[in-house]
Amino acid sequence: MNKQELSRLLNSGENTTIEYKEAKNAMPSSLFETVASFLNKEGGTILLGVSDDGSEGKIYPALRLEDFREDLFEKARRFIRSKRTDHPWLEEDYQGILRLSNFYRKDFSTGEEGYTLAAALMFGKDETIQSILPAYKIEALVRKENLDRWDDRLTLRTNLIESYQLLMDFIRKHLPDKFYLDGDRRLDLRELIFREIVANIIIHREYTNPLSTELIIFKDKIETTNPNKPHLRGPLTLESFSPFPKNPLLRKFFSEMGWADEVGSGIKNVSKYLKYYTSDIAEPLFWEDDVFRTSVPLVIYTFSQKIDYLFELLGVDKNSIDHKLLETIQSFEISSPIAFWEEKNRFLYNLVSSWLKSSTGIAGLKSCDIKPFENPDFFEVPSSPENVPSSPENVPSLHEKSTNLLGKRFMTIMKIFIGTGLPISMEQLMKFMNYKNRKSFNELYMHPLIQNEFIKRTIPGKLKDPNQMYMITKKGRLFLGGFDI
Predict the structure, then answer these.
(1) Where are the domains of the chain?
(2) Which single residue of 112, 292, 390, 424 has CA 20 to 30 Å from 151?
(3) Closest Cα partner for 266 from 319, 194, 216?
(4) Residue 409 — pLDDT band, cuts 50, 70, 90?
């Protein structure tokens, strides 16, 4: 790599194939995660010794104080004062606030100094922001009745302070409030949950990416998407989540105004309070990739009413299932478009279609000769006299038909998901599957499923621990329930 190529990479900023690592005194701990992420995609370039402070820190030397709105500084003061009356920023002039919040900085490696992108986003006039980021946009939509277009719409190209307020007003307009007593405190669940969602899509988005941020309210869920610089890929859970500030200066300023807590509070608080707002079994989905996706269920659909369909499809004897395991599987969530279908063959058609679509991205899993299909009636076993063959033994069962369609290996995978609904040992799982060859079972199924994070070990650090057990992950449950992963 020559000097010109290096300069090009530095000027282009971070994206899905370029990542900076500061690496002042040692190799950063996140280096190998980035290497693995690049290897799993189209490759990339890692530049060591370069700050990775986030897209917010870019200096714009031509930005002047007159490019900012004075009323936004006063508005920020009011929010800061309401949280802390002795806050040191309250005595500062506008330029002092910008310096103390590190929205004015000097790059000591180049000598360049000035106001940053964060300053423009927080306090800039609309024309200032659009001049710097012409593609920047936040779209809020309601799609409860009109799914092709919208029932209500809000488009924002303005500063982050007013964007946050307007998005929260949009939420309040279209979602019911609900209160919860935490001891003697009366908590507004709508505020607690959705201020985290709104703050996250604002302060953690990748602003150098031209994709818009979206917040969509459906009848049964709220979904948000925003451009992102991923550090991991896939679903984030409380157990595996390691907080990482994407734009630490924006997050800090929101925190000073009382609109954000510590890093990672979004996942913690939404997970904590959603069960009181929606249902005991409600779980939010946080999916990190080049586009960060959040899905908050408002109505829960589970396998409880469809469990017989699922077991018939997979050839599982319901009476042989442990009662506690059966209850657990029944509580697994189903994607709402699939749960909508009451008729068996339509329900199964949509469920299997989702499996086939998602299975194409499972690396290393030889799911065999899956056949495409277009007819929901495939799942309809003949029942009227004129359609039944003369010999009853020639009537194909639903399980036999689905095995022909999906292939034996794929059906085995889905049964593994059922068997690992609760922690289970390898011996117990193989007995449940009626599988004899442990080596083959590991190579064909368990290792790929663990590698793709569909199944997890209960003792991941000790692979040969005699108490080792296996359990389906959230990603596995989403796959089983027909969600887009």
Answers:
(1) 3-52, 54-298, 303-383+397-480
(2) 292
(3) 194
(4) confident
211 forms bridges with which residues in the sheet? Answer: none
CATH of region 54-298:
3.30.565.60
Tell me whether strands 18-21 and 45-48 are parallel, antiparallel or unpaired: parallel
Q: Residue for token digits 């946050």?
A: 164
Rounded to whole angstroms, the Cα distance separating 73 from 70 reads 5
Residue 35: count other Cβ atoms within 10 Å of its Cβ. Answer: 13
CA 311 to CA 32: how far, in whole Å?
41
Helix (H, G, I), strand (E, B) or coil at 262: coil
Closest CA to 323 of 470, 422, 447: 422
Helix (H) or strand (E) holding 441: helix 438-441
Instruction: Give the pLDDT score at 296.
Output: 94
pLDDT in tens, 343-352: 888 999 899 8
Give the pLDDT mean for 371-395: 60
Any idea what the Cα angle at residue 364 is, between residues 359 and 367, rounded to 5°? 45
> Within a 10 A sphere around the Cβ of 103, how many other Cβ atoms?
25
| 404 torsion bin: left (phi>0), alpha (psi -120 to 50), beta (else) | alpha
